[in-house]
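dumping this here before i forget
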Amino acid sequence: MTHPDGDRPIVAVSGEIDIETEQILQRALRLALARSSVGVDLDLTGVGFCDCSGLNVLLRVRRLALADGKTLGVRALSPWVGRLLALTGTSALFTQVRGPVNGVVHDWHEHSAATHNLMEEMEEDGVPEEAEKLRAEVVQLKRAMLTRPVIDLARGVLMASFALTSEDAWSVLVDVSQHTNTKLHQLAEELVASVNGAALPDHLQQAISTAVTEISRPA
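structure:
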C-alpha cells in the first residue's frame, strides 16, 4: 500500500517476502519510484518473514533509484527485517529515515561498526554494487530451513555471497565436496550453519575460496 507524503511516497509492506512474492514487491516499488522525483520510503513494520529473495529486491530497487538520482529509504521495520539487514551488513545501503510512521517514531537498528567501516571503504573504492552482492547472503530463516532442502539453501548462500549463477554455485559445492572428501549434504549443512553463526572449518573455507576463484576466472 502506498501513502502520499510530500515528494516521497511511503510504501507500506506487510506479510511475507519470499520467492513467491518478490516480483509483486519489485513491481510495486518500481512503480512508486517512477512516480516520485526524489525517491521512496518504506514502512516494513508489517513484514513477518523475509528471506534473501526479498533482500535482493530491495538491493535491486536501490540500484535503480541511485541510477536515476533518487534514494530508497526506510521509515520503520519489523524485528525480522531489522535482523536480516543487521546480519547481512546491508543497513548502511539504505537511507536512514527517522520520520514518524502513523505518529510513531521507530528506531533504526544499526549494524556493527566494523561492517559499516568496510562498507564505506568499498563505496569509496568505487565498487558499491560488488559490496551489495557480497552482503546479500542467505541468513538464518528457520521457516525456510524446514521447507527447502539444505543443499538448495547452501547453493543460495554461495550465489548471494559470491554473485554466482545457480549452475556455478552447484559446481562449487560439488568441487569442494570432492576435494575435501566431504559428503555433499554435510558440506551444505556446514555452510548453512555458518550463516547461523557457527564457524566454518578452515579447510572448507580455503576450498570454497579456491573453487570460487577458479570458476569466476574468465574462460
